[in-house]
Amino acid sequence: HPEAFEHNVNENIRRTGERVWIAWSNRLMVDGERKTAEILSVGTDVTKLKRAEEEIHRLHAELQRRALGLEQRVAERTAELAAAKERAEEADRLKSAFLANMSHELRTPLNSILGFTGILLQGLAGPLNEEQRKQMEMVRGSARHLLALINDVLDISKIEAGQLQVACERFDLRASLVKAAGMVKPLAEKKGLALGVDIAPEINFWASDQRRVEQIVLNLLNNAIKFTDRDAVTLRAAQERTGVRISIGDTGIGIRAEDIPSLFRPFQQVEAGLTRKYEGTGLGLVISQRVAELLGGEITVESIWGKGSTFTLFLPFKSEIHHETNHSSDRG
After folding, report:
1. How confident is the model at residue 165 (pLDDT cuts 50, 70, 90)?
2. For labeling, which of 108, 284, 294, 308 is most exposed (least CB within 10 Å)?
């Protein structure tokens, strides 16, 4: 069929030896009278176009090769990440099991030590002389300190593993604040500090995690007393439109502005020297801030170096709150 040769492309060699691609347009010319047929061919140099097509094909093949290689690398990396995730989850399970076991293994003997020293100090096993009583007080103090450190380490481990759970229950916030102040009052008196308590009349029942709220307030009170050597520590609580604000102010050493961010980093105190003077893991404020966040709140700090600090816990309203009859204001 003549139309089969109407268009074709082929490679040609010029006299110079250069290889070129020519696109031919062919037309059959028939002379009926002379009974002859001729083919009229017009050639167009399409070398550049042909080479561009070849380059496109080459690049496409290269792209496919690289895509295949990338898919293989992604598959390998995905497998590696899955294996790493599995190892991390297994390590986390082992850590959780270790922490649970450590909690039991360390707390049990410590509680026994505290129990027996309490019995001895009460004179239930016989009278103690002054030196013996002094030594037993030191043992009990060290055991309490160690138990607090263990509890801090376990809490921060649970927080960082996302395993610390908080509840939402209705409780008497006023009573919890008064209880916390009562627990630290002997420590304040031992240092010659006045402990002020100013709880607004509208503070009463609240919806949150009672144990964790008390933990935060105790941490803040203990910190304030620890770093204060004169005058007073004051606990204040007031209700606002969106929640309750609990502030613990002191007249202690204060904090430099540039040191405030480090307060909420694990295992840090604002100065290395403070670690030696004021014992602790440096976890109390970290735990308090993380727990406050889990409760939907936050802890903020205002401080003047050399004059004192105020740590404020803000807790938002919960829909479950039911207001009870107001108590009279507690001020101390």
Report:
1. confident
2. 108
Encoded tokens for 8: 């074709």
Q: Are 128 and 150 in contact (CB under 8 A)?
A: no
**Do 150 and 29 reside in the same domain of the chain?**
no
SS3 282: coil
- Token reading at 265: 């980093």
Q: Alpha-carbon distance 218 to 220, whole Å?
A: 5
Q: Long-range contacts of range 160-168, CB-CB < 8 Å, 24 or more positions apart?
A: 161/92, 161/95, 161/96, 163/96, 164/290, 164/291, 164/294, 166/209, 166/212, 166/291, 166/294, 166/295, 167/209, 167/210, 167/211, 167/212, 168/207, 168/208, 168/209, 168/318, 168/320
Q: What is the number of structural domains in the chain?
A: 3
Task: Name 112's Cβ contacts closer than 8 Å, sequence gap at least 6.
Answer: none
Model pTM?
0.61
Residue type, 303: S
Q: Are residues 290 and 175 both part of a single domain?
A: yes
End-to-end Cα distance, the chain: 114
Q: Of 107, 136, 160, which marks where a domain is finished?
A: 160
Domain boundary among 11, 28, 45: 45
> And the tokens for 90?
């297994």
Encoding tokens for residue 229? Answer: 């050597």
The model's pLDDT over 222-270, given as tens digits with 9 standing for 90+, comes to 989 988 988 999 999 999 989 999 999 999 888 888 888 888 776 555 5
Does some domain include residue 58? no
Residue-number span of the structural domain to which 192 is assigned? 169-331
**Residue 64 placed within a domain:** no
